[in-house]
Design brief:
The chain has about 350 residues and is an alpha+beta fold. The chain folds into two domains: about 150 residues, Aminotransferase class 4, branched-chain amino acid transferase, N-terminal domain (D-amino Acid Aminotransferase, Chain A, domain 1, 2-Layer Sandwich); about 170 residues, Alpha-Beta Barrel (D-amino Acid Aminotransferase, Chain A, domain 2), CATH 3.20.10. About 25% of the residues lie in helices and about 30% in strands. It is built from eight helices and 16 strands. The strands form two sheets. Strands 1, 2, 3, 4, 5, 6, 7 and 16 form an eight-stranded antiparallel β-sheet that branches. Helix 2 crosses helix 3. The chain is globular and about 60 Å long. It starts with about 30 loop residues before the first strand and ends with a strand. About 40% of the residues are buried. Bound molecules: 2-OXO-4-methylpentanoic acid (COI). 2-OXO-4-methylpentanoic acid binds next to loops.
Length: about 350
């Protein structure tokens, strides 16, 4: 057992009245989990505090060199009112993998999980009720030494904040249009593409804006060496149904080891679908489309869940996937995954942690 003291907020915010308008990541709850790190002392002082702004010295290292990592997971409300988490230990494990790449000290994953559970116990009324809504959980660590030399910080803050959310994309389950980026790259071999760290997302913004200006929702990144092979979308891993097999880029060090990606592969395999993790050339995806062998495409992620892709544009050529409608397998996987996550379906995989 861990000692995690709770300080309650003196006044509470008003909870969103209309859960159909939550959007994503704009509203935050009344409390947060915090702990600190200092060289020699290790991680210490885990606690629940009222949600509040940080006061940071302008020289704080994270502001200059981006030494920071984050995670994303969700707490779901079942029809019986009870709450549950989806594979939280896998998220904290991946959080430590990201931390290691950014020279951030390892934390006790069980302590983080206990801290999260305690925070959720305090904030349980913030978990929304409407279909498709959940409480998004954002753990993050920032480097806090006041110093502008380049080195690993000797102090850190670990924090978990919570946000009631609806669909990540404003248009919900309607298929998204994806622009295959051929100028910029997101990550290179030996870099930190596999880590959930700010720099990967900052590096994606310019290409994202350019794709939006062309009428697309998201950018699909190609590998950073030859710009030939499919990597990921940034907020999602990519999956294609080609020749009725589920094909996805193999984990190669420059893409995120998505927990939704892994869950979808396991679900599809359990449905008897052949799954292929491979080095997937974008030219082969387009060739499959030309030969009517590309049946479906979708992205997977905690925030995006399963998001159908209806259009892909690469090298000036646009292809439509699955008539710009959600594909049959995509829908089945979406229904099964969300059924397990929201407790409508049994969980034969041991992914659910009831609170
Ligand atoms: C998530 O799916 O939880 C993510 O971290 C994606 C995010 C950048 C919104």
């Amino acid at each position: 057992m861990y000692d995690i003291p709770v300080t309650l907020a003196a006044t509470l915010k008003q909870k969103p009245q209309d859960e159909t308008k939550l959007g994503f990541g704009k509203i935050f709850t009344d409390h947060m989990f915090m702990m600190n790190y200092e060289t020699g002392k290790g991680w210490h002082n885990p606690r629940i505090e009222p949600y509040h702004p940080f006061e940071l010295d302008p020289s704080t290292m994270v502001l200059h060199y981006g030494q920071t990592v984050f995670e994303g997971m969700k707490c779901y409300r079942r029809a019986d009112g009870g709450l549950q988490l989806f594979r939280p230990r896998d998220n904290f494990k991946r959080f430590n993998v990201s931390a290691d790449r950014l020279s951030i000290p390892q934390f006790d994953e069980e302590l983080a999980l206990e801290g999260l559970k305690k925070l959720l116990d305090v904030e349980k009324d913030w978990v929304p009720h409407n279909e498709g809504t959940s409480l998004y959980i954002r753990p993050f660590i920032i480097a806090t030494d006041p110093y502008v030399g380049v080195k690993a910080s000797s102090t850190y803050i670990f924090c978990i904040i919570l946000s009631p959310v609806g669909a990540y994309y404003a248009h919900g389950l309607a298929p998204v249009g994806i622009y295959v980026e051929d100028q910029y790259v997101r990550a290179v071999r030996g870099g930190f593409g596999f880590a959930k760290t700010a720099g990967n997302y900052a590096a994606s913004l310019k290409a994202g804006e350019m794709a939006k200006a062309k009428g697309y929702d998201q950018v699909l990144w190609l590998d950073g060496v030859e710009q030939k092979y499919v990597e990921e979308v940034g907020s999602m891993n990519m999956m294609f149904v080609i020749d009725h097999k589920l094909v996805t880029p193999a984990l190669n060090g420059s893409i995120l080891a998505g927990i939704t990606r892994d869950s979808i592969l396991k679900l599809a395999a359990s449905m008897g679908v052949e799954c292929v993790e491979t080095r997937l050339a974008i030219a082969d995806v387009f060739k499959a489309a030309h030969e009517n062998r590309l049946q479906e495409a979708f992205g997977t992620g905690t925030a995006a869940v399963v998001s159908p892709v209806g259009e892909l544009c690469w090298n000036g050529e646009k292809i439509t996937v699955s008539n710009n409608e959600i594909g049959e397998l995509t829908k089945k996987l979406y229904d099964t995954l969300t059924g397990i996550q929201w407790g409508r379906l049994a969980d034969p995989f041991g992914w659910i942690m009831k609170l």
